[in-house]
Amino acid sequence: MLVSRESLMDNEEYAEIFAKEPHSHAIMRDDKGTVRWVSNPNIEALLDKISLNDLIPLMCMLGLDKNSEQYRLLYRSMGYSLNGYWEIFYWDVNNKHTYEYKYKGNTK
Fold it and tell me: Number of structural domains, the chain?
């Protein structure tokens, strides 16, 4: 079931994501109640052919890191949970340079 950003603003971590990333990637609540980004079937098919553990080093070789839009889009397109997304990209334990992030993508 799709959910609006507004309905999730009482969660401090989600609010931080939404404030810093004004894109319009859809959000859903799955059958177990987990709030996650809506996945992209093309990315799911890609990850059937190459594992995330192999894809991430390739992205790094291209100069992409946790503060790049392409890296974040990959995780959103995988249907990652918003809790997990916050931990990967906004928790300084996992992203020591999270404070440097500036959204540079499309807001549509």
Answer: 1
pTM over 0.70: yes
pLDDT at residue 106, rounded to an integer: 75
Structure tokens at 27: 């959000």
DSSP code string of the chain: -EE-SGGGTTSHHHHHHHHH------EEE-TTS-EEEPP-HHHHHHHHHS-HHHHHHHHHHTT--TTSHHHHHHHHHTT-BHHHHHHHHT-TTT-TTGGG----S---
What confidence category does residue 105 fall into, taking pLDDT thresholds of 50, 70 and 90? Answer: confident
The closest alpha carbon to 72, from 82, 48, 34, belongs to: 82
Residue 66 within a domain: yes
